[in-house]
Amino acid sequence: MIEFKEVSKRFGSTLALDKLDANFPTGKIIGLFGPNGAGKSTSIKMIAGLNRPDQGQVLIDGELPRMSKAQIAYLPEIDHLYPWMTIGQAAGFTRSFYVDWDNDKYHELLKYLNLNAEMKIGKISKGQRAKTKLLLTVARRAPYLLMDEPLSGIDILTREEIINTLVRDYREGEQTIIISTHEIAEVESLVDEVFFIDQGKIMLSGSAEEFRVERGQSLVEIMKEAFRHVDQ
Hints:
Layout: E1 2-11, E2 14-24, E3 29-33, H1 40-48, E4 55-60, E5 72-75, H2 87-95, H3 103-112, H4 126-138, E6 144-148, H5 156-169, E7 176-181, H6 184-187, E8 193-198, E9 201-207, H7 208-215, H8 219-231
Parallel strand pairs: 3-7, 3-8, 5-6, 6-7
Antiparallel strand pairs: 1-2, 1-4, 8-9
C-alpha cells in the first residue's frame, strides 16, 4: 500500500500539495485525476522518491520511497530518452540498473508495439518514442508502476496501443498501477479506483464502478461536478 500522511510540498510560493491524505490500495489500477496544476505530477514524483515532502510522510509498504525504489517503475511525462541511442541500446542501459528486467517480456513487447531494436530514438516519430518509453518501463516486473500523463500529446492510435499494452500485461492482484492524467475519458474503462485531486488535496475518492453505478455518471462527469462544487 502507498500512503500519504498529511503531505505538504511547496515550490517557491506555489503550494503543490496541501496536507494531502490518501491510501492507494495494492493490486489495483488507480486513476489519479485532476486538471493541470492540481498536484498529480508532484504526488507521483513523491512516490518515485524524486521529491520529498516539506511536511508529512509518504510510505510504500511501510517504508520511505528512497528505500523502495527497486520496487517502482516510473514513466515520466517528459521525454527522457537519449536520441543518439537505438531502442536496443536504451533497453540495455535500462536493464543494467534493474534486476527485475524481463528480457523475454521486452522482446515480446517490442514485437507487439511494432518497434525494432535497431531504430534510432532521435529519428523515430513522437508516437514511437511514447511506445518506447512504455516498453522500457513495462519490461520490468516491478510491483508498482507509476505513469505520469502517459497519453499526453500523442495520436489516438498510439494511445490505443498504450492502453492495450497496459491491459495485456497487467498482473491483477500482484501489481499496482497509478495513472496520473487529466485525460480521463481515455483511461476510464481501465481504472478500479479513482482519486480526484485539485489544489493539492484529494477532493473525492473511491471505487470507479461504484461511482458510476450509484451516480449514473461517467468519471469525467463526476470530476466536473465535484470541482464545480468546490469553486462555488
